[in-house]
Write a structure and sequence with these properties.
five-stranded antiparallel sheet; Beta-Lactamase; disordered C terminus; single chain
């Protein structure tokens, strides 16, 4: 990060009023001036080892290669600033080649929170995933991008008069949401950010909605019902039971676990028989029962994967009653209660031959 033959780049270093930096196509920062350090708290040497993605509060935001946009930046202290970012592409043959000059202005105190939301969503007008803003006080849709409207198959005016409760989760989550046209459920990955007032109470929800690629993961109607449920424990348990019925007498290994107790709640006959147990012996038993003694049982490991996406797949080593090692590939769906706490995990297992598992890719994890 040194001066070059470029007048513009040298001006970035010398400017004492405008926060600015230069980054490449990948977002790697090469030049960082003093006003930027003052605004965001990072020194030039610190930013020389970072990507500008580290500054993004909205992690779905992409690297800009030109134009003006409005979004939030997170300072080293944790403070979130609403900024106007102006981007110009420049060429520096004597330095890093083509780069992007980015001028950052702090607009946090200049515009009201609802104006910030309006300016922010404008950058997603042509996006290929759904984006909307909801009012935290009444839970209704406030602003929408066109892709979200087409995804839910609804009339924009009718959507704006309706509740966004199906999408208002904490953080990231896989859910099934109903179409406005016919109520048919479809799977989406949701990422929710919250704009708070001075007292820390939510004002607005900023929501990204990504459709799930059916070629990557196709969900059955019973699984979609599971992903749509967000009620009390009796309702959740009833949906888990409905899901389990399709596997109860099938030649496919399946089970339901209690996420809070890390114990088996439902186990089908096929799974139990393949490992030398009866169904009655496994129901209510801790999932650690099947783990090798040489492996430390840590149920938080796989749970963290489910927390990130709502479903996950992992290869697990288990032991039969006689101590014989077996490998299974477990695909699990996380079920959450009304307080957004993971309550159950519905799991389908496939027994795999160890020879078919590349050693470098084998992950020994606890039973989900």
């Amino acid at each position: 990060m040194s001066k070059t033959d470029s007048y513009l780049i040298n001006r970035v270093y010398e400017d004492h009023e405008v926060a600015a930096y230069l980054s490449d196509h990948a977002g790697n920062i090469h030049v960082w001036n003093k006003p930027a350090e003052k605004m965001l708290g990072y020194s030039e040497s610190e930013m020389g080892k970072r990507s500008e993605r580290d500054l993004f509060w909205d992690k779905t935001e992409t690297i800009s290669d030109g134009g003006i946009r409005y979004s939030w930046r997170k300072s080293k202290s944790g403070r979130v600033l609403f900024v106007k970012e102006s981007v110009v592409e420049i060429s520096d043959p004597s330095g890093e080649g083509d780069q992007f000059l980015k001028l950052i202005e702090d607009w946090s105190d200049a515009v009201a929170p609802w104006e910030q939301c309006s300016l922010w969503i404008s950058q997603y007008s042509a996006s290929k995933h759904g984006v909307f803003v909801a009012n935290a006080r009444n839970g209704k849709f406030l602003l929408l991008n066109q892709f979200f409207v087409s995804m839910v198959k609804g009339d924009p005016q009718k959507i704006l008069r309706s509740s966004a409760k199906d999408y208002l989760v904490k953080g990231k989550r896989l859910k099934a949401c109903p179409s406005f046209l016919d109520g048919k459920l479809f799977p989406v990955e949701i990422d929710v950010l919250t704009i708070d007032d001075e007292r820390g109470k939510p004002l607005y929800y900023l929501v990204h909605v990504h459709p799930v690629d059916a070629t990557v993961r196709k969900f059955s109607p019973a699984e979609l019902e599971l992903l749509h449920t967000n009620g009390d424990d009796s309702e959740l348990l009833a949906k888990c039971t409905d899901w389990f019925k399709q596997y109860e007498n099938a030649q496919i290994s399946a089970h339901v676990t209690d996420a809070s107790k890390n114990s088996f709640l439902m186990v089908n006959k096929y799974f139990a028989s393949q490992i030398g147990y009866t169904v009655e012996e496994l129901v209510h038993a801790p999932t650690s029962t099947l783990m090798p003694r040489s492996l430390e049982f840590n149920p938080a490991q796989f749970a963290s994967r489910l927390e990130a996406h709502g479903w996950g797949e992992v290869v697990t080593e288990i032991r039969t009653r006689e101590g014989k090692p077996l490998f299974i590939r477990s695909t699990a769906i996380a079920i959450y209660d009304a307080q957004d706490k993971m309550r159950y995990r519905c799991v389908v297992n496939q027994f795999v031959d160890p020879k078919d598992i590349p050693l470098a890719k084998t992950v020994l994890q606890p039973m989900p």
